[in-house]
Amino acid sequence: xxxxxxxxxxxxxxxxxxxxxxxxxxxxxxxxxxxxxxxxxxxxxxxxxxxxxxxxxxxxxxxxxxxxxxxxxxxxxxxxxxxxxxxxxxxxxxxxxxxxxxxxxxxxxxxxxxxxxxxxxxxxxxxxxxxxxxxxxxxxxxxxxxxxxxxxxxxxxxxxxxxxxxxxxxxxxxxxxxxxxxxxxxxxxxxxxxxxxxxxxxxxxxxxxxxxxxxxxxxxxxxxxxxxxxxxxxxxxxxxxxxxxxxxxxxxxxxxxxxxxxxxxxxxxxxxxxxxxxxxxxxxxxxxxxxxxxxxxxxxxxxxxxxxxxxxxxxxxxxxxxxxxxxxxxxxxxxxxxxxxxxxxxxxxxxxxxxxxxxxxxxxxxxxxxxxxxxxxxxxxxxxxxxxxxxxxxxxxxxxxxxxxxxxxxx
Length: 411
Prior knowledge:
alpha/beta; TIM Barrel; 8-stranded parallel barrel; 15 helices
């Protein structure tokens, strides 16, 4: 990794020689803008055009599924042999404007697929979701080895198609309790074969996904991963486990690692139960990144909580991270990167959306859906409103999704 001055506007050269124009990273957010056949829409292309013009250096898509029989949400985009590549090409053309890099985030939900989408989800082991989530998610069936190998192939095939469609790179979604994360977690992965048990076996799935992707697209095409620092569950994926996985991925040649944490059952990625010391530094996972930096020189991204240019600059200069991950601020201020590059003291002041009724807020998952509502407005060329009343969001969700409006959603 190139050692240069770390300010928000400085470039970053990855290990494979690819250079990013600045240190601002758009993290994946749920867009819900796929069509009925799970292809990208014109609105999705317009959305990424706006973000590219807004000054972001590296933009990562919302999760694109590798298997159309395993969706996390009803309007997920899927990239496989049935996809309309012309729509993906339109998406990449828009998202790469202004010298922006556009990476596709590839994912398989495993057991985190609502029961109205999947009658029998699959997972490393037949361990159901808990903490009340069993009401909206069916118990999973344990994957066979043949199915595991098939899913690995799907990740590689989707990556090959992504390169063909013009994406600048790929990010494997290995966080937030989806399938890759499920394999890594001793809570979710209780297999007794070569795909479970020891950490070496539990990380085999992600390593085989990475290797198959690298074999498909070559060394020059950036391959990154979004990885949990921990899943914050009893007997789950620990920070020590995470660091061991990072070291192994470094040996394999991973180009960029985005640090996150949590699952549907313990949603730390949304700021749930954040410590006061963490709030002061703004970034949810910076403490872990501090420790990880001592173990690896792979370029790192920390996402979650950043709101002020001062905190971003301090994080970069501390050496803990090489890029600043932004998500929710970009849903209401798509030009926030340009503002930061012009004035590193600027701040994004986001109010916590609320109807004033806690039960309604929780049922409507406003910590996610309010921002998704704003993203939808950007995509349809409508103005966003940082002070948007929460009730129209609740009503739109109910109208658009009917009986499934308040089923658990991704973050």
